[in-house]
Amino acid sequence: MNYTTLCDWHKLHHEKALFGRYITTSHIQPLIDQLPELFQVKSLGYSVEKRLIQSVTFGTGPIQILGWSQMHGNESTTTKALFDLFRWFATHQDQTEVKHLLNACTFTMIPLLNPDGAEAYTRVNANQVDLNRDAQNLTQPESSILKEAYTSIKPDYCLNLHGQRTIFGVGSPAKSAIVSFLSPSQDELRTVTASRKIGMSVISDLNEMLQQFIPGSVGRYDDGFNLNCVGDTLQQLNIPTILFEAGHFPGDYEREQTRCFMFLSLIRVFESVLLLKSEEIGDSNSYFAIPENKKCYFDCIIRNVNIPQIGVTDMAIQYEETLKNGTLYFVPKIAQIADLDDFVGHKELNFHQKEIQIPEGMQLEVGTNLENLQANSNLPTTFSVKSNNLL
Ligand SMILES: [Zn+2]
């Protein structure tokens, strides 16, 4: 496929009913209800708070691909990408290449596995359980629904679709980790097994494709083994599983750019899978050549600022995503006050040892909410965080 053409298509024709970070059942249900004939919708069960969890299946081929998004309720970028993908398949199903995909594969996607977490904009479900640590104990209905799905479908490949925070960078000097991937381990030794190798091979293809759009901004996620994670569990069952982490494109807190890269990556996975011949898979080197994610970013760093009682230092600010009355706000809070030479800010300011003016009685310390500081201080307007989704 021509990925530049796909990217152009995405700019114009992505699912516009979905926008921003706060994506819930009420946003996606009308879209699921209107899916054309190509798609079969199945009810899989209910969340703790009795929200419906559904799957969308399309294609008729023997290769079974199972994906799920928003297992962490506040990681919605890949959900948007899935609905873009549905639109793309619906409008391109008569094209030879697409027909080929649909005849070779059966795709089953669960767009919203944790609807209660999505509603509350939290990582965890309504019982405060991280579903990605519940793969063995299966204490939650959402975990059982996913297990039932992979037990009945017997997927050849799984796609575990997530989003990552703005703190991750790759390379040196670091660039934002706009997208990261992982072929999870299936044992403590992180052995490169046949199943892992297949995932690695697919991820290498993804990386190669993405480099033309976001050079130096693709990361490899930490492969520490934890059987309570779904990916590790599936990999241990010898089902190649690919973890997607949608990250931060500079300036794009809505994750509308990253959404496009996720869309392209999904299509690239399907293409890769079709081309895979197990005897040919042997190259894990290009996978390991992808730089590992490191925690080296803050949303904002103010350098060389003179803080009363502390002196000249650096100050890092991290936005706390906060849901209030159905609207998501990005609340700036002090994350660190220290020498931050080893860190990068998505936004950087240099105070050149100038004192920061703060209202009387305000303390600058880790955790301080800076929402109202700008109006009352000498912070320049470039720092401005107008909440309400738009920065
Ligand atoms: Zn996640």
From TrEMBL:
Q: Which SUPFAM superfamilies match?
A: Zn-dependent exopeptidases
User: Where do the Peptidase M14 domain residues begin and end?
Assistant: 11-273
Q: Where's the active site on this chain?
A: E245 (proton donor/acceptor)
Q: Which UniProt keywords apply?
A: Carboxypeptidase, Hydrolase, Protease
Write down the superkingdom of origin: Bacteria
Protein's GO biological process? proteolysis
Q: Which molecular-function annotations from GO does this UniProt entry contain?
A: metallocarboxypeptidase activity; zinc ion binding
Pfam families per the record? Peptidase_M14
The family line of this record is: Belongs to the peptidase M14 family.
Per its record, how is this protein called by name?
Answer: Zinc carboxypeptidase
